[in-house]
Amino acid sequence: MYIVVVQNLPKILLPYICVAKYYLTCQCTLDSMDDILQQASLTNIILRLPKMEKLLILLIIVIGFASASMRIERSIDLSAAHSLISDSKLPGEITPNNYTIDLRPNIEESTFSGKIKIILTWQEPTNQITLHAAHDLEIAESDIKLSKIGMDETIHHDSTKENYPKEITIRRVDRMIKKPCLVIHLQNALKQGTVAELEIDFNGQIWETSEGMFKGSYPDNGGEKKNYLATHMRPNFARRLFPCFDEPSYKVPFIVSIARPKNYTTLFNTPVKSSDEIEDNYVIDHFEKTLPMSTFTFGFVTSQLALLNRTDFSDPHLKKLCIRVYARPELHSDLDKTRVYERIEKSLLSIKTYLGADFPLEKLDVVALPSFSTVKPADNWGLIVYKESEMLQNSYYLIAQELVYQWLGAWATPYWWSDSHINKAIAGFLSAQTAIELDGGAEFEGKWPMTILYSIYYEFSKRYPHSRITGMKQETICSKTELVLRMLNFTLGADTFRKGLQKFFVDREFKTFFADDVWEALTKQAHLDNKLCPNVTVGAIATSWIQKDRIPTVSVIRNYEKKTAKLSQKVYLRERPHDVPEQDKMLWWIPIITITEDKMDFDNRTPKLWMKKVKEVEIKDLPSADKFIIVNPEEIGPFPVNYDEKNWNLLSLYLQTPKGRETIPVYTRAKLLHDAWNLAYAGQLSFATAFNMTLFMKSERDHLVWNPVFTMIDHIGRHIDMSNVHKKFETYVRTMLTPLYEELGPEGDENEENWRRNLRSLSKTFLCRAGYKPCIEEAQVEYKKWMESPSPDEGNPVANQYICPVFKWGTMEEWEFGLHRVINFPSSRKQNERTYLLKTLAGCPNHSDKILRLLNITILEQNANFTENDIFLIFSMLSGGSSGYTTLFNFLQDNWEAIKIKFTNKTNLWDSLISTATGVFTTQEGYDMVKQLYVQRQGEFGSAEHIIEKSLKNIKEETKWSDENLPVIEK
């Protein structure tokens, strides 16, 4: 509604946008609205309206324009990527100079009290102070004090002396209803340049969840419970601990004192300066003044964790830096085995060298915190808090990532959350570079960046990216930005890229930055080093990639007689139909890097040219018609490449030779295979060509090249498993995987490399799915031990890997045994074991009688041992294969009336049933089945009417794919 109203507002009302913004920040009441409008010297049109209509118009304008008014136009606007951070900016008329904080936690009672003094400067005249304070933070509003200190002469240039009283009168204090904000209204507006001290007392609860200040516990070796306090302020939880300007752009020093029990230690951002005893066996620690920092980097841990001793530091700079690791004493020996101090030291030196800047602090505390439940470590400045399991990983990447944040994030800070994607992306890129430098990337097993690259390909090629998991959008955009940085590192040159980042960092230390600042620094260095044309900017290149939830594909069509090729770009789409709006208008800056068979120089990453947001370009001077070319080797840019059929065949033949597999690097071999299969799946390449590209796999043994094969076996197998081609496809899978599995052997030794163990496991899993008899027989032998157990409900002695093959290829008796284990599952055992068993019972069988038995007992008989959540889970698992969803469809058709009665008043179950039973077919036969049901039962679907209509539309599209591709795949 608001869009219609705003579009029809007369132009004379546009000045009221500023009033709407004023309303947004000060939360004026209906009674004060007339004063605000009159003070704004605007027209009397709205003034004559009744109060509620007046409020409605203001709210309409607010909704329509609030987001635009908060944008920082200099920056690449990625606020949508951070939609989970629901926050609006403070007015900005007053800024903090520093905080003095006294915190008194009571661990036993899970409460805390505190006092804060904030030195404020008036950047603009105003009579109110707005700052953040969570609603659960109790504030003694009547005791708030504001005292004038003086004037900031750099802001206020008037030499006339003002005679303000030292105590400034506070008229009232408001807590915003829908925002965690405290608004202090003053009797009079204070002038620009005024400096004053605000003093607030507060109390709060210590929480169990890892937000703000929270409490945790763990048992020591003797079983005694040990409590601790810790903080997690990112992104905006500081307001839960004390009133503040809780935005990353406010970087000021903190002077902090924190109370603790005598037998505890408190670690803070800075070292302890002094300590005083206070009542009740408590001590208060006074810490050194911090450097200017944002509230989200504030942090402390109060605990009885013990220091892990380490004294030998080799680097002169690190001798000035106090590095300390804290953990439970029981964990110390394990941490020693992971060489934790050495990993921290080496990572620090690597990052310091890359950024060209020393570590900015005098000390760094690293804590392994028991029962710490956050997704990621808490990277407070000078104090990094990990889960114990994270600290025990022998990982350089995880250590390096948090250390990078000490420089980039804490020292140089994103101005707003819409810029944090670039911060996280740089941290990810530098962490990977550090890990590769220090251990050759062994912990990645070569999967960086391929793992994140392939996930980006799949997500951004959907019709509706992130439609199922909105929180994924943050991660995928950060990952894509990291890949863009990697592309720039290659195309600009590693030296130019590093110097550009160093210049950016030197310019922004102790300050905030926008994403554009990064691109500008890289542009200047690229121009200086003649790596970009003077009229080209890195910002233009990066923006073309980051602002779209899409990636391009480049098609290469060679003219073999003229030794040229025409390259064209378009949006890459896998899911059908390819009906993405305005896809023809989407264009990217794409680096064209080529390798030719007669010049196999994979170290040359200089672009032959850039596609400067144009649809087509031509490249010349290509080799003769019997030589292949490769575009975008080593996945330098995050985009797939298609070729004409002849070039694909040249590549396939070359890869089948030992020389081909030796001279073409592993990333490029993986890319060629991955691109071919995905382009075929998307309908842009013949499956004949894609299958030809797998011929070299009979001799390929590198796990990185095999990884995309398993993914595509899964994707294609699921898509065609209703067709007659599927049995031939399973034969193909067995033929391809059997030599690999037999060469790897059924078991490895304990010192075997992890990648080899994973490759064996994947090979075995997919062979089992395809009916490899030795696998099935081995699974049945193991499963029989469970069946012969005297007490089968007390535990499952069979490894999970054996259960699905038995349920898929085994007897009805074996499957029934599993069903009874679910029905009789004791409450004393872990419920996730029952969940796994139920998932395999439903999702693995390829015989309808097993699935019908499960549907009868759960839906028609309504066995009390199965909950509604169990039925949802069964539906979900049945969607994974044609045996499941076809059987479910027939079950629905045969028992329509009974199911309708059972699902009366269970709309969600009914909708899920219709979606699974009708929405996954891919052939004309499936379309005809669903269409017949729709016609036969039209008007009876209720809430699921739109679901089956959507199913018919999607199946029609998939049918086109099947008609085109199944004959090719079969041949």
Automatic annotation (TrEMBL):
Cofactor: Zn(2+)
Gene Ontology biological-process entries: proteolysis
Compartmental location: Cell membrane
Active-site residues per Swiss-Prot or TrEMBL entry: 402
Domain Aminopeptidase N-like N-terminal: 96-296
EC number: 3.4.11.-
InterPro entries, A to Z: Aminopeptidase_N-like_N, Aminopeptidase_N-like_N_sf, ERAP1-like_C_dom, M1_APN-typ, Peptidase_M1, Peptidase_M1_aminopeptidases, Peptidase_M1_dom, Peptidase_M4/M1_CTD_sf
Class of enzymatic activity (EC top level): hydrolase
SUPFAM superfamilies according to UniProt: Leukotriene A4 hydrolase N-terminal domain, Metalloproteases ('zincins'), catalytic domain
A cellular component annotation (GO) from this entry: extracellular space
Listed Gene3D superfamilies: 1.25.50.20, 2.60.40.1910, Neutral Protease Domain 2 (1.10.390.10), tricorn interacting facor f3 domain (2.60.40.1730)
Keywords linked to the UniProt accession: Aminopeptidase, Glycoprotein, GPI-anchor, Hydrolase, Lipoprotein, Membrane, Metal-binding, Metalloprotease, Protease, Transmembrane, Transmembrane helix, Zinc
Chief location of this protein within or outside the cell: membrane
Cofactor: binding details: Binds 1 zinc ion per subunit.
Domain Peptidase M1 membrane alanine aminopeptidase per the UniProt entry, residue ranges: 344-527
Bilayer topology: Lipid-anchor; GPI-anchor
TM annotation in the entry: 55-72
Residues in ERAP1-like C-terminal domain copies: 628-956
Gene Ontology MF term list: aminopeptidase activity; metallopeptidase activity; zinc ion binding
Record-stated family: Belongs to the peptidase M1 family.
Protein name: Aminopeptidase
Organism listed in the record: Clunio marinus
